[in-house]
Amino acid sequence: MNDIETIKEIYRKYWVYLIEKDEDGLRSLMSKDYYLLHMTGVRQSVDEFIGGLLAGTFNYYSAEHDDITASVKEDTATLTGKSRVIAAVYGGGKSRWKLRGDFTLRKENGVWKLTSSRASTY
């Protein structure tokens, strides 16, 4: 599998792990310095984000991917994923969202890791 396909697969796994609330799976995809910038403007470290997921602040039920694009430049990459998601966040009810995730990645010891993501809608 080439780097672009590997990175696209990371995005697909990211959503599976979010839905399953799989902490080990998520951590396997993320660098130690990973952070998420929510649509609300809140910036969370990997520990804060996974803590919120496990505590039920973020609940993801399904994700259907409309588009996944990636580009690689040496040991860094960018990824944009557009997915239709059913989620309940921050105490709200289940809603359908068209979520766009803009990710950065870095190759660490030959393995691609997510270093940041920024959530928005499309």
Write the layout of secondary structure elements.
Blueprint: H1 3-20, H2 23-29, E1 30-37, E2 43-45, H3 46-55, E3 58-73, E4 76-89, E5 95-108, E6 111-121
Helix pairs in contact: 1-2
CATH topology: Nuclear Transport Factor 2, Chain: A
Question: Overall 3D geometry?
Answer: globular
How many domains? The number is: 1
The helix/strand order is HHEEHEEEE
Given the helix and strand composition, which structural class is it?
Answer: alpha+beta
CATH class: Alpha Beta
Explain this structure to me?
- The protein is an alpha+beta fold.
- The chain has one domain (3-121): Nuclear Transport Factor 2, Chain: A.
- 29% of the residues lie in helices and 54% in strands.
- The protein is built from three helices and six strands; from the N terminus they run ααββαββββ.
- The chain has a six-stranded mixed β-sheet.
- A hairpin with a 2-residue loop joins strand 3 and strand 4 (76-89).
- Helix 1 runs antiparallel to helix 2 (23-29).
- The protein is globular, with a radius of gyration of 14 Å.
- The mean pLDDT is 96.
Summarize the structure.
By secondary structure, this protein is an alpha+beta fold. It has 3 helices and 6 strands.
Features:
alpha+beta, Nuclear Transport Factor 2, Chain: A, globular, 122 residues
